[in-house]
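quick one before i forget lol
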Amino acid sequence: MLELFSHYILHFERYFILSRQSVLIIQWSIVGLAALYALNVTKGFD
């Protein structure tokens, strides 16, 4: 029983780390897209 519980905790920890990484990747891609968009808008005004 205890072994199953510790296995479940390890699995949850791994999932949490993965989801945290994916959130960071999504945030950075949004930041990158916003920066590209801002650069294109400023280039368009030139």
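fyi The two ends are 68 Å apart (CA to CA).
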